[in-house]
Amino acid sequence: MVTGWPNLSNPADDTFFFILGISVTLLALNTGVMLYFVFRYSRKRHPQAEEVRENTSLEIIWTVIPMILVLAMFYVGWKGFVYMRTAPPDAMVIHVTARQWSWTFDYANGKETNVLKVPVRKPIKLLITSADVLHSLFIPAYHIKEDAVPGRETHLWFLPDQLGSYDLFCTEYCGVGHSDMITKVEVMPQKDFEAWYTGKKAEAAEEKKPAPKGPAKKAGAAPEAGEKLIQVKGCVACHTTDGTPKIGPTFKGVFGKKETVIHNGQEREITVDEAFIRQTLLHPEIDRVKGFPPIMPSQQGQLTDKEIEEIIEYIKELK
Ligand SMILES: [Cu+2]
Asked: Fewer CB under 10 Å: which end of the chain, C or N?
């Protein structure tokens, strides 16, 4: 049950149980009548078969009753559909971008996260798109899902009525990292949400990790920013920072390393430097690191120059 909003139950559940009820009743009736006929008209009791030619009232009954039933199912389903497709006017709008293989949530004030944070008891409207292939956003706890389509904006809404953390994942097979496209909906008390949404403090406290110590950094490109970027932009779906290879090579210790890459179908050796990281971010097809599937998507248009700098600075510090 959804509370705090008129029309208090989840219309998808209502429709499901309505149709289930009708189906179970029909099953019971059909089975009952069938068993009755088996006994009543067995050869023993009824040796001579009779042909029934016409029975107008019977035909009207078996046309009208099913028609009423299917129209009722349509009505209940349609009402639920309209309800689920129409976000309340006061809903909070959050833009969602799906990409191989992560989610990004953009808020009206420019905040960007990869966990969907929402205040409790406030209707949330998600405007969904994809940066690459088809994905589908699924929040099982709210019984909602919607496709993420490149070049198009789809939408859905829900009312987070209880505090807690709920799964949010991709439910359309979108490549090797599909199963990594899992994150959370965090339903927060209104106050906590406000603090996170408006302030820097809450966020810094919550996302603080030991900052990597390293050589002096370039002005304007903070490795801390790079660390956050690789989370938000979903790099960590394929690349770890702890030295274990995943779908792609790990970032740890990669800077300055010699790697064998595939270049135009030929193997060659390169050293991972700033230019190589930049090239791989923008044109990953030029040099693919050997031993990994050729699936790194280009980040052209996804990352600004400054962000690329920040990521490079971060990778440099991951010794
Ligand atoms: Cu996906």
From this structure: N
